[in-house]
Amino acid sequence: MKVVIIGAQWGDEGKGKIVDYLAEDAKYVVRYSGGPNAGHTIVVDGKQFALHQVPSGILYPEKKVFLGAGMVIDPEALFNELAMLKENGINWEGRVFISDRAHLILPKYRSMDKERDASRKRPIGTTGRGIGIAYSEKSHRDGLRLADLDWKEKIADLDAEDLDYLNKYRDQLLSMRVDLTSKMWEYRKDNILFEGAQGAMLDIDSGTYPYVSSGASCAAGAATGCGIGPHDLDHILGVFKAYETRVGNGPMPTEFNETSEGELCQYVRDTGREYGVTTGRARRCGYLDLVALRYACRVNSLDSLVLTHLDIYDEMDQIEACVAYDINGKIVTDFPANVDELNAAKPVLQKFQGWKASLKECRSYKKLPKNARAYVEFIEDYTGTPVGIISVGYERDETFVRKNPWKK
Ligand code: IMO
Ligand code: MG
C-alpha cells in the first residue's frame, strides 16, 4: 500500500505527528516536496523533535527514509539536522537516502531569496531558505541535481565558492544517492508512506498564488516527487486543524480580527502553540475555513481527512466555522483564484456548541463528547470527505483512528 499525507490548509497542520504515527505500519517513508522551509514537529515520550528535511519516519529505529526528487535540499542544513538527530540518540546512518533527481540549494540562494522578497512590492514573507530560487533555477533548467555532482562538465561550470561548498558534502551526499523509481518498484509490495510538506493552499498551482511556496505540495506532487505514477497512490490523507493558521503574507479569509477578536486569537495561538518551527514567527490564526478545506479535498482527491488540534476548543462555550464567503455582498462557496476577491471575502460563520470537557484521554470516536462529534460530522458532510483520524494532543499516542488508511 502507498499512503500519501498532505497538508490540507496553509501548512503547519500537524503532518509530522501524523506521519510519525502512521509510519509505525510503513516500511519506508518518502518526503516528496519542499525543503528546509518545512518544520515538522514530533513529540515522543515528552521529547520534541523539529524536522525540516529528514522525513518524519526517522525516529523509528528500523525505518528507511527517502528524500524525493520533488524536494530542494540544502546540504548544510541537512547534515546539521542529521547531527542533531545523532546527538539525540537517533542512529540515521544507512537509513537516509536521497533521490538522484532531487535539486540542491546553494548557500547564495538563501540571500537571493531574502533580497528578492524584500524587493517585492508585495512580499510573500518567505522563510528565506532559498526555496523559490532553487525551484526557479530548476524551471529555468539551470538547477543542480544530486546526480549532477557526477557530471564533470556541469561541475566545471560552477564558481569556486559553490564548488568549495559542495566539495565539503559531495562524498557523503553521493553515498546516500538512490534511483528512487527503481527503489519504489523494488518495494512495491511493501507499505510506503509519502510525506508532503507545506499544504494544498501553498501549492504552486492550486494555492493562493502568488502567496504560495514553489513546490508541488498537492497530492499529485507525491507521484512526480517520488518517481511513480498517480495510479500507484492508494490512499490520500489530508491533515487539517480544527481552526486555520497561516504564516507569511497572502489572503486568509477567516483570519481573526486582531482588535475585535484579539482575545480569541491569542487564546488559539497560545493553546495551539502557533509559533513557527522554522522561523519562530507568530502564526496568523482564524476560524476553520470549510470553503478552502472542501476545495483542498477536491483538488487532491482526498480519500480521508485527519483532524488535529481538536482539543484546543476544549474550554470554549461556542465554536464557529466558515461555511461561505461574503464577497462584496455575493455569497460564494467555491474557493476563488482572484486575490482581490479573497482579500474582500468576509466569512459567513456557522455556530457550534462547545463540549467543555478535556479530549486528551479520548481514544475512540464513541468516547468523543456529542458536541465534538457534531462538529466533526458537519465537516464531513460539508466537505464530502470522511474524517478518518483524530488527534487530541501532541504525543504520538494522543490519536485515534476511525478508518485505517493501510487497509483497503
Ligand atoms: P510545513 O511543511 C507553513 C510559507 C512561508 C511563506 C510561503 C513561501 O511545516 O507545513 P517559501 O520559503 O516556501 O518560499 O515561503 O510559504 N511556508 C510555510 N508555511 N508551513 C510550512 O511548511 C511552510 N513552508 C513555506 O511562510 O508564506
Ligand atoms: Mg511548519
UniProtKB/TrEMBL annotation:
GTP binds at residues 11-17, 39-41, 283, 309-311, 391-393. GO terms for molecular function: adenylosuccinate synthase activity; GTP binding; magnesium ion binding. It is an enzyme of class 6 (ligase). Binds 1 Mg(2+) ion per subunit. Its EC number is 6.3.4.4. Mg(2+) binds at D12, G39. PROSITE patterns: ADENYLOSUCCIN_SYN_1. The keyword Nucleotidyltransferase does not apply. CDD domains: AdSS. IMP binds at D12, E13, G14, K15, N37, A38, G39, H40, T127, R141, Q198, R281. It holds the Pfam family Adenylsucc_synt. Keywords: Cytoplasm, GTP-binding, Ligase, Magnesium, Metal-binding, Nucleotide-binding, Purine biosynthesis. Gene3D superfamilies: Adenylosuccinate Synthetase, subunit A, domain 1, Adenylosuccinate Synthetase, subunit A, domain 2, Adenylosuccinate Synthetase, subunit A, domain 3. The active site is at D12, H40. Its main location: cytoplasm. PANTHER family: ADENYLOSUCCINATE SYNTHETASE (PTHR11846). Homodimer. Belongs to the adenylosuccinate synthetase family. Plays an important role in the de novo pathway of purine nucleotide biosynthesis. Catalyzes the first committed step in the biosynthesis of AMP from IMP. NCBIfam families: purA. This is Adenylosuccinate synthetase. It comes from Treponema peruense.
